[in-house]
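Good morning,

Attaching, inline, the backbone tokens for the sequence recovery test we're adding to the shared suite. The designed sequence is right after.
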């Protein structure tokens, strides 16, 4: 099976322009393609991970990836799929986030000479002359068509600023710049980026002629990844200091039955034949599929050793209720009141719940246990002495564990 057909079989391709040309370029290793990453945080998350997996697949098939870091577009922020405006970041924050992205991306993509490139759009966007930009690029955009774009529709009620309205033009200019200066003939992105990506393709064809090579393909990347990568306590990060390898493993181990085969196809590098066999698995066998998914993805992101540790810890928790690499929270004297702390505060401090009300609900419904014993009293407290040494192991639901200790 060739790479384009494999992407289809894995459920990655959502929409394309010029499919025959795209198939030919990708299958013959002649695509130079880019995916953009706006530095909105100091770590990549699961949504980015899906894009990185795609880049890795295509690179291994002989194609050349360009990782476009949004040092320029990050100054505005993509309004796609948002109900309000992003908080503006300082240049220092953006540059720090980019540095973090660079380190993480290098785990997945071979950036050695001729294999791939990493480019920052601040290098051209921040140097633009406003009037020249309007004359050269803005004249090719219809405001009516821009307003009809899906990426802006969710902002109509609250209002879309002119500041954000420029994002589509800037993203289109990125493709135009990469096409001219880097030989980039294709762009990839999530299905929520379709309007912005089409704008880039159309800009190149208007500027260079209708026969210009400028291809667009959207994948079930950002929207799927962002949906999957959300927990009640926030995003699932690739930085081990933000989401530990054990927590990362547990996230995938606890994924819903309906999503496990989809994730195996889209995110792992296991042969499709092996995954297709898992399609026949039912009941408890699906738990084994989830373990395979969790192990494979933890290995990709954090390395084989961390995947083994996470797997061992997860099995130890379910068999003995304890594990060496279990996520932990260390409390201080400031967290105590008169030398004690109540179960609701413990759940909140341990990031097992997003709020005190959710903590209370979990306890009253019998979903919380401490060291294997169910806790149903919302006023239950624990002393400093009980939390010292090995501390306590708090369990919420069937799959969420946290070791709580004192500093």
């Amino acid at each position: 099976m060739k790479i384009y057909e494999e992407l289809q079989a894995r459920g990655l391709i959502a929409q394309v322009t010029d499919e025959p040309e795209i198939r030919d370029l990708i299958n013959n290793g002649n695509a130079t393609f880019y995916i953009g990453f706006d530095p909105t945080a100091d770590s990549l998350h699961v949504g980015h991970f899906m894009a990185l997996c795609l880049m890795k697949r295509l690179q291994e098939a002989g194609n050349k990836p360009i990782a476009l870091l949004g040092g320029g577009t990050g100054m505005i922020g993509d309004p796609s799929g948002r109900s309000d405006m992003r908080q503006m970041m300082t240049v220092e924050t953006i540059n720090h986030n980019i540095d973090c992205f660079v380190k993480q991306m290098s785990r997945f993509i071979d950036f050695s000479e001729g294999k791939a490139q990493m480019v920052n759009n601040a290098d051209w966007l921040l140097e633009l002359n406003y009037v020249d930009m309007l004359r050269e690029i803005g004249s090719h955009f219809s405001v009516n068509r821009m307003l009809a774009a899906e990426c802006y529709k969710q902002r109509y009620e609250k209002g879309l600023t002119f500041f954000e309205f420029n994002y589509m033009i800037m993203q289109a200019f990125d493709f135009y710049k990469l096409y001219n200066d880097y030989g980039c003939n294709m762009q990839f992105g999530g299905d929520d980026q379709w309007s912005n990506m089409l704008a880039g393709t159309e800009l190149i064809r208007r500027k260079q002629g209708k026969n210009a090579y400028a291809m667009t393909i959207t994948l079930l990347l950002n929207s799927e990844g962002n949906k999957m990568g959300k927990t009640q306590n926030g995003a699932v990060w690739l930085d081990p200091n933000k989401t530990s390898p054990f927590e990362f493993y547990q996230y995938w181990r606890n994924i819903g039955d309906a999503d496990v085969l989809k994730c195996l196809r889209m995110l792992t590098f296991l042969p499709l034949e092996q995954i297709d066999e898992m399609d026949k698995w039912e009941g408890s066998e699906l738990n084994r599929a989830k373990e395979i998914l969790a192990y494979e993805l933890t290995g990709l992101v954090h390395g084989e050793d961390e995947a083994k540790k996470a797997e061992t810890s997860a099995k130890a928790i379910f068999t003995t209720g304890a594990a060496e690499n279990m996520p932990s929270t260390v409390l201080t004297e400031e967290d105590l009141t008169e030398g004690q702390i109540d179960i609701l505060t413990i759940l909140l401090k341990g990031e097992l719940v997003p709020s005190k009300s959710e903590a209370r609900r979990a306890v009253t419904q019998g979903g919380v246990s401490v060291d294997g014993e169910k806790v149903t009293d919302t006023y239950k407290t624990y002393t400093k002495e009980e939390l010292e040494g090995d501390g306590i192991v708090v369990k919420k639901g069937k799959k969420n564990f946290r070791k709580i200790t004192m500093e």
